[in-house]
Amino acid sequence: MEYALTDKTPDQLATECLIVGIHENSGLSEAAAAVDRALGGAISAIVQRGDIEGKPGQTLPLVSTSGKAERVLLVGMGAAGELKPAQYKEAVARAAQAAADLRAATVANFLPSVPVKDRSPAWALEQAVVATEDALYRFDRLKTRAPARPVPQSCIFGTPVGPEAAAREALAAGSAIARAVSFAKDLANLPGNMCTPSYLAEQAQGLGTRAGLKVSVLEKTDMETLGMGALLAVARGTHEPAKLIVLEYHGNGTSAPIALVGKGVTFDAGGISLKPPANMDEMKFDMCGAATVLATVQAAAELTLPINLIGIVPATENLPGGSAIKPGDIVTSLSGQTIEILNTDAEGRLILCDALSYAERFKPAAVIDIATLTGACVIALGAQAGGLMSNDEALAHELEQAGQEAADRIWPLPLWEEYQKQLDSNFADMANIGGREAGTITAACFLSRFTEAYPWAHLDIAGIAYKSGKEKGATGRPIPLLVEFLRRRARLS
Ligand code: BES
Ligand code: MN
Ligand code: ZN
């Protein structure tokens, strides 16, 4: 979709769908009031009659009006001055969906002119692009008879963002984030037979060419030479060759880079500790961390952020082939530490630990890993927040704040020393599982043994990376959080 800005008032716009906000308690937003005047009080009459209460995200299409717009879409924006950031995003998403349902090709959206609590008009404009693209996204390239569904082609925003330049910047940032989110969704929604480790590597190469990045792909033999025994152990169960993908974006001379490490298990059957069949298809989403890393690097490059950024993606399938690792097997990681693999379904930490050791060579200022790591995290935090665990309080705080700002939240869990003993093994330096209790934390404890050389944070995104059921599909989270984090780091540099 094409986005543009207007400084016209809503009643002056000839559009197929004009979107204006309605407040709870019968108030019209400024834009709605302007249209109301032009329509001789038609909107206030509808609101007075109680057809729309103005609850956040409610929509009411008025399909035939005497104004310049073919249709007016009223959207609930809550009580004036009380609209929370997440409610705003939800309302914009519902509005985009409703405009598409109306088959409008052109849209003029004045929701960004409605004040959002604790947020600037520039934020509202940026997020309007992100939320609109998120709502209109479809993955139908594998349907031979994709339902003809005309989506809006152009969207004009009415916004009070002050100087022209600031508004343009917000639009550009919103578009970059939205493109990253949809890139990641495309990668993650592809089935496991198409999105293989090799496919991820090709996509990384393509991104490198597009964005002018250095991309290298380590093959099995390279990893053997390095001694990545943990990553290669997982890869033994499948015929698909494992890859370690490394992307480098240089935007700030020789300053220490941020490294993002993303779990790239393109299908997790559990290995010999085979998963039960119900919903196993969703384990194609076990590479959402990898998709997040590729997409975030893309956004950083598009925004030409003045930072240095490394993306590292260990990629493999986790299948129960004849050469697969077995419970009880002991392997040696790149760090030299030995691991007793008690459950082959705890594979994410095995590929991540070698990638995290590998990250040391970049002398990073901080390392953030992103992984659909534990079912326990879905139980603990659900789909609202990702889990945050870190060896550095300042870094954890920065990430939490960035998530708060982007309405893409994470929530801390403790990484206390006391949990470490759950990983004790009688036969190796550590076991790869820590029992039923605190499964998300013991997974992070495992990773913490490979991240002592730098400030590190772990984001467990098992609950937020994709949706199940009727809405099954990748979400692109936590890309908005990470882009916000990187922008804040860029401002400090
Ligand atoms: N990829 C899964 C985690 C997962 C589960 C993500 C559900 C999304 C939804 C991971 O590799 C896994 O299998 N973890 C095990 C760990 C256990 C064996 C200690 C789990 O969570 O059950
Ligand atoms: Mn697993
Ligand atoms: Zn997994």
Describe, in plain words, how this protein is organized in 3D:
The chain is built from 14 helices and 21 strands. It starts with a strand and ends with a helix. It folds into two domains: about 1-160, Leucine Aminopeptidase, subunit E, domain 1 (3-Layer(aba) Sandwich); about 180-490, Aminopeptidase (3-Layer(aba) Sandwich). The chain has helices spanning about 30-40, 40-50, 85-100, 120-135, 165-190, 195-210, 220-225, 230-235, 290-300, 350-360, 375-380, 395-405, 440-450, 480-490; strands at about 1-5, 15-25, 25-30, 60, 70-75, 105-110, 155-160, 215-220, 245-250, 260, 265-270, 310-320, 330, 340, 365-370, 385-390, 410, 430, 455-460, 465, 475. It has about 500 residues and is an alpha/beta fold. The strands form four sheets. Strands 8, 9, 10, 11, 12, 15, 16, 17 and 19 form a nine-stranded mixed β-sheet that branches. Strands 1, 2, 3, 4, 5, 6 and 7 form a seven-stranded mixed β-sheet that branches. Strands 13-14-18 form a three-stranded mixed β-sheet, with helices on one face. The mean pLDDT is about 95. Manganese (II) ion binds near residues 270 and 318. Zinc ion binds near residues 265, 268, 286 and 348.
